[in-house]
Amino acid sequence: MILEIKNLDVHYGRAHALQGVSLSFVEGIVAVVGRNGMGKTTLCNAITGLVSARGSVKLAGEEILGLAPNAITDKGVGYVPQGRRVWPSLSVDEHLRLVARKGPWTVERIYKTFPRLAERKRNGGAELSGGEQQMLAIARALLFNPKLLVMDEPTEGLAPVIVQQVSAMLKSLAAEGEIAVLLIEQNLGVAIDVADTIDVMVNGRIARSMPAAELAADRELQQRLLGVKMADEDVVQESPPRTEEVRILTVKRASDELVPEDDGERSLGGYTRWGSTAPLQESLPSEKPEARVVQFPVAQTAGRAAYIAGTFDTKGRELFYLRNCLEKLGLRTVTVDLATSGKPSPAMIHPREVARNHPKGESAVFTGDRGSAVSEMGLAFEHFVAQRRDLGGLISAGGSGGTALATQAMRRLPIGIPKVMVSTVASGDVKPYVGPSDICMMYSVTDISGINRISEKVLSNAAHALAGMIAYSRKSEKEETRPALGLTMFGLTTACVQAVCKLLEARYDCIVFHATGTGGQSMEKLVDSGLIAGVLDVTTTEIADELVGGVLTAGPARMDVFVKRPIPYVGSCGALDMVNFWAWDTVPEKFRGRNLYKHNPNVTLMRTTPEEMARIGRFIADKLNRMQGPVRFLIPEGGVSGIDAPGKPFWDPAADKMLFDTINSSFRSASNRKLVRLPHHINDPAFADALVAHFNEITQTAWPASLARTS
């Protein structure tokens, strides 16, 4: 026997995942099939030593259960894990030469077997397509020259043509007789096509073992054991009587042609991932006498995956429920464990794999202190998501700790990437979690502790919401042709910004942000996401709040994005004469003797002093000096806000002069970076004209000629 398993048991806490599993075979390919959550991946992990188990696992007559994973590999077990798990920073050639051993499988033979890998040998793992990553994962296992190859879902998320190639490769391996294969496969068609024997796993047990041909010929048995229909099956089930017309919503990949199905009788029983598509069917009232079919195109799962992240040691049941909901909709999923407890992980991505993305390495996360471990895992996860090329959307569920951990990474993702957080804190102040990002937060209603009639509905809705976002996150058919332009405005700089918009709106899509802290952060988040082509940062008042202690700060990183992304930037000193507080009685005691102005019943403004203006000036100059351009910064010497003018409450020429002189003395001019002082008030039409003129000047050289002409 190449593999002989007897009475194998695996527990996750109180959960009995594998229950007396026994199977054996001599050669060829044996496939283990079953629905999600039946224990198939746990079986792989038990064989390869990745989870603790009781019973017996013999390889060619030698007991290997209880050995370390590397020792099991040395004995002759190669493993192709679910999700590929290639190293993003290593090239294809580095992957292969790192694991190569003496034996019939060499790097040269791999390149002959997988010509595509030879073509991509210098590309990193993160630069490969899903199919190429799967080829690399298989090749990596073969280079250990194993006696037994354990493959967990090798065709998951692959395009049909790549699935055919993988199937052909497995048949070739079996025909050569060098290696036996234990295949875990969700695609029943592939399992039947390549395997000699199929074992059906149900609730942690092997419920049936039979020749593949026998299962292929018995459709009723497939339905009874697995609840599936083959992709080519065209049998129509009888629909139950209904009193109202229905529409059938069918989930298809985005690549499928959107052609309505026939209006005849249709099955209300659904396909699962075992077929080639995964329709979602719901009964809805019909507005017309005839039922209509609505196509719901889901993202191509070979290219984009729904990531489910969280602490699987405490929220595993809820997170796997999200995964199952998404997979029923036809999406490829990737589960990411963020737990810091050190317990065995059932997720595709182990916590230590996430932790390795920390700038200081894995050891910075697993410190032994729970508080610091969670904080550092959040940072590691933030860097992890930035490296994922196939991330189509991210969803999580948790309490306050889990919410803080997951949303840190969500905020790192560009605007437009779907992000859903199911949280117990979503009905309170969510600003610390959402910030300037487009995170969708859904209140969990009940605590996230098990699946009940309430949590089931909430989690299901969240999964469907993410699926819809991924499905429709494509570019609109009517793409906006005008470049997007970001502008910052405050109530007391409105006249200036409105005049600028009027002058530019025919050529630009002018997007105005209220400079209230989150407004500045949101604009810069869009800049960082590549969604804004140029900026007129007229109102930099948030800097005053940051340095003096107001309530509308955008944080110390204000303006840093323009150092990172040198887009056309024109800035000014809008509303730097003021610091913001809420209602009059909320002003801190230390500021009660200052020049205060009641802007409205809810907002109190405080005039900045010359000393504070000097600090603000140094802050701005430092940021401007690090920008690579094209940059223009315009100083309105006649006043910086609607109440900073002769006869107005905040008119203070000495304080303004300190700001202007400090910027001027600290600013370093360059060919692409200039400072311009003008005698106008910020709300004078002449100042708006100057802002537009300088913006037009820098865009003529910063943008391609064709874009500049249209601008």
Question: How many H/I helices?
Answer: 24
Percent of residues in helices: 25-40%
Supply the helix-strand structural class: alpha/beta
Strand order of the largest sheet: 6-7-8-3-9-10
Distance between the termini: 73 Å
Principal-axis shape equals elongated
Strand-residue fraction?
A: 15-25%
Low-confidence stretches: 228-302, 704-711
DSSP summary, beta strand count:
26
Summarize the biggest pleated sheet: 6 strands, mixed
Radius of gyration: 31 Å
Overall mean pLDDT: 84
Could you please describe the fold and organization of this structure?
With 711 residues, the protein is of the alpha/beta class. It contains 24 helices and 26 strands. The strands form six sheets. It has a six-stranded mixed sheet with strand order 6-7-8-3-9-10, sandwiched between helices. The chain has a six-stranded parallel sheet with strand order 19-18-20-21-25-26, sandwiched between helices. A hairpin with a 2-residue loop joins strand 4 (54-59) and strand 5. Helix 3 (92-99) packs parallel to helix 6 (130-142) and helix 21 runs parallel beside helix 22 (653-666). Mean pLDDT is 84; it is low at 228-302 and 704-711.
